[in-house]
Write a structure and sequence with these properties.
The protein has nine helices and eight strands. The protein is of the alpha/beta class and 225 residues long. The protein has one domain: P-loop containing nucleotide triphosphate hydrolases (Rossmann fold, 3-Layer(aba) Sandwich), CATH 3.40.50.300. A hairpin with a 2-residue loop joins β4 and β5.
Length: 225
């Protein structure tokens, strides 16, 4: 199976690019971040404050959590938490911080690792996250580390929320992105850093179409498609 790993910081457009590329190539898209967001959503719903997220408060919850992915006829991915479609709920800004916090917990990562690797063994996949190329799929044939400036990512997120009709403050979102970056970069468990053999790609000034075309060109160059 052909496995493509796309890593990078929050808001770099990993999911958007991965979805578009997967649709074009007829690969299975696996959004690992959505899995962590689902556990973060459940954790918040269980009454755990963000500052109190740790192994002691979260590990006992795992026995009550089932996360699964399903795909609609149009190819869109839906995320289910205990049978409930939470695809929209997990995209709240606060859930991003919960996702980062729970992803530091080794037991949470182990809870999801087997599911992620099983998908890659059975399908041609494009998987995005923070440590796909370094931990989840270390043998992926192509690894991309996608990044953009914090300002560019905050601007995109603000525009996205406004398009959904939600209130959004650019400065608040910028501060949240910087906080998330620091958490992801410095955590002890699977920090968000490029794999040694990853192709680093700055998409601050690229459109989605340009970004997809750039990755497709790499796949052609390596005779993977």
């Amino acid at each position: 199976m052909i496995n493509i790993a796309i890593d990078g910081p929050s808001g770099a457009g990993k999911s958007t690019v991965a979805k578009a590329l997967a649709k074009e190539l007829h690969f299975v898209y696996v959004d690992t971040g959505a899995m962590y967001r689902s556990i973060g959503l459940y954790t918040r719903g269980a009454g755990v404050a963000l500052a109190s997220v740790n192994a002691e408060t979260v590990v006992p919850l795992l026995a009550h959590i089932t996360v699964s992915l399903a795909y609609a006829e149009d190819g869109s991915q839906h995320v289910y938490l205990n049978g409930e479609d939470v695809s929209a709920a997990i995209r709240e800004n606060e859930i991003s911080l919960y996702a980062s916090a729970v992803s530091k917990i080794p037991e949470v990562r182990a809870h999801l690792l087997s599911l992620q690797r099983e998908m890659a063994q059975k399908h041609n996949v494009i998987m995005d996250g923070r440590d796909i190329g370094t931990v989840i799929l270390p043998d992926a044939q192509l690894k991309i580390f996608l990044f953009a400036s914090a300002a560019a990512r905050a601007r995109r997120r603000t525009d996205e929320l406004h398009e959904r009709g939600q209130a959004a403050d650019y400065e608040t979102i910028l501060a949240e992105i910087n906080a998330r970056d620091e958490q992801d970069r410095t955590r002890d468990i699977a920090p968000a850093v490029p794999a040694d053999d990853a192709v680093k790609m700055d998409n601050s000034d690229m459109t989605i179409e340009e970004n997809v075309a750039a990755i497709r060109a790499l796949l052609v160059q390596r005779n993977l498609i």
